[in-house]
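not sure who needs this but someone in the group chat was asking about Polyprenyl synthetase family protein from Corynebacterium canis so here u go. i didnt clean anything up, its just raw.
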Amino acid sequence: MSQRTTSSVVSVIPSTLLGCGVGVRRDHETIHIMPELPAPFIARTAASTAFLRDTLLRMVARVAEYNRDAAQAYEHSMRIAMGGKHLRATLVHVGADRLIDAPPAPADTAVAAAFDLLHASFLILDDVIDADETRRGEPTIHAMARDHSGDAHYGESVAILAGTAALNKATRIVANCGAPAEITLQVLNLFTQATADSMVGEFMDIHHSLPQVEPTDALIHLASRLKTSAYSFEAPLACGALLGEHPERIPQLVRIGRHLGSAYQLADDLQSVFGTPDRTGKDPAGDLIHHRATPLIATARATPTWSKIEQAINEEDWREAQALLRACGAVEQSTEQAQQHLDTAAALTRETQLSQPARAVLAAVGAAIRESTLV
C-alpha cells in the first residue's frame, strides 16, 4: 500500500501520560507523535508509523479473505497500534542516532514499527487481564467482541488471539527488517528477551495481587521494571544502537532506559490511581480495583494509615482511598522516587556520545514523564 501524506502537523491533542502530541494526518487517520522533537526524529517516527499502518492494512485485508469478524478484531488492533505517542519507535531512532540529514533507514523504520506493535499487543492482552472496558475512549477488543456476540468467553478469546497475532507480526517484522544477518539476529534476540521479561513482570504483578501473597519491596520494584522498562525503554534504545552501529553505547543507553522506564512506571502507577479516563485512556482507579501491588501501594502498606486505605478500597470508595494515599505520604514518596530516576537519567544522558538532537529527545521524554508525576 502506498503512503499518501495529505497534510502535515494538524493538531495538538489532549494530554495523556506523555503530555500533548503532534497529530500528523495520513489517509484520514491521525498519527500522534511526541511533541517538541527535533524535526529528523519527527520524520523518522512518522516513517515508522506509516510503515506499520501499511503493514497492518495488508494483514487486515488478508485476514478478511478468511473471516470478516477476525478482520474486524485485527482492524481494532491496528487502531490501538496507531494510537498513543509512538514513544518506543522514537527511542529506536534515538538509539540509532543517524546523521541529522540522513533519511530514515529501512531497518530502523521496521524495528521501530515492531516495538509499536509489540506495545499494542501487550495493551490488548492487559485489557483482558484487567477486564478493562475502554482503551483510549473506545471499547476494548474483548468488550467489543463480547457485545457483538453476547458471549463474554468469546470476547476474551478474540482479544487473546488478536493480541497474540500482533505479537507474532511484530516479531516477524524484526526478523525481516533488512539489516545485515548478524545484526538482525542480535536485534531479534534483544526484542524477544524484552518480550519475555515483560511477560514475567506481568505474571509477577498479577501474582502479587493475590490476597495471600505478600511480596517484598524489592520484588515489587523488579516486577515494575520488567513489565515496562525492558520493552519500552531499554530494548528500543539498545536495538537502535545495534542498527546504527553504535554497540559501545548500549550499556549506557540501557542504564538511561532503565531509569526512564522506572520513572515512567511510577508515573503510570500514579495516573492509574489519580488520572481521569480522558488522560489515561483507561478505566479509573484500575490499580485499586485489581489490588495491584505497585510501589505506590507498597509504600502505603508500610504506614499506619493502610488499614483505612484497605477499607476504602474494599468499599470501593475511591475518593477516600485517594485522599488517604496522599495523606500517608505514599504519593509524595513515589513522586520523589520518579524524580530521582529522571535526574539520574538526565545526568547519564549528558555523559553519552549521542548527538545533541538525540539527547534533546531523551530530555523531552524525561520532561513529559516528570509532568505526569504531578497528580
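also Residues 1-31 have pLDDT under 50 and may be disordered. if thats useful
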